[in-house]
Design goal:
about 350 residues, alpha/beta, D-Maltodextrin-Binding Protein, domain 2, 2 domains, nine-stranded mixed beta sheet, about 40% helix, globular
Length: about 350
Amino acid sequence: MTSTPKKSRFVLAAIAAVIAGSAYAEGELNLYSSRHYDTDERLYSDFTEKTGITINRIEGKADELIARMQAEGANSPADILLTVDTSRLERAKNAGVLQSIDSDVLEARVPSALQDADNQWFGFSQRARIIFYDKTDVSNPPMDYVSLADPAYKGMVCHRSSSNVYSQTLLSAVIENHGAEAAKAWAQGFVDNFARAPQGGDTDQLRGLVSGECDISISNTYYFSRALRRDVDGLDKDAMSNIGWVFPAQNAEGAHMNLSGGGIAANAPNKDNAIKFMEYLVSDQAQQYFSAGNDEYPAVPGVGLSPSVAALGLFRPDAVDLSKVAKNVPAAQEIFNQVGWE
């Protein structure tokens, strides 16, 4: 694989020069990605080695890439958009920058709940969003999401802001599973139990358990598994030994899952190559890289887990249709505003 230096990936002129002529090039594909993981390099290099297709990349934040694709319109060189979280995939669909595709491989390999009903996006990897707690202070942790609103946990809970897509998708799933009225009551109880104003990322929620600011927090599993595999600032092995975890709602809907996925750009100049790459991402080899390289759960059933992921144990995931969950995001944002979740 050939790739521009990291600094240059964010330079808008990197691929824009191609627009003046044709963005089509036999043996190439143009990838717009908001996945920011160095370990994905293995995915790209192996695909190129197998197919001879070179991947040209533009990396940036999801909303910026979607806006860019809209601005480029029919002249966009983008072949694929990769991003994280179902809400962003649905946002790209609603923005008109993706297209429906036919692929027997993707249909067979990706469970129906992890793909768009119109085949405009498909999931490639997952992260469970679960409950973590300080074992030295909490002897009776909440066993489901609903219990996080229990007054027994007042002043104990930390979470990210309402502007974060993980927060939005979690509440959207609560709406889908329990209804809007119950979801609003849950969100209000959750806010009442905050130990501090919402702040930081998922790793910061885990650090809050170590610092003593929080007794209970929610995080995607891959942040925790990464810290199990190698030291992360503020989360050394001694600190980690005091953190327990719960896969929520195992007697109900199951653990909420966040999705990383992608779709073919609406005006993809190298559509055939793009479909080949999408199909490669659901191969056993690529699925194992998602787990081993970035501590994620494969989207394809039956693919083995890396030791750091398997160490968290077996659980039942929420099987809710994520395309339906994504459609609840506007309702979730309204609830956040009503209950004062900053």
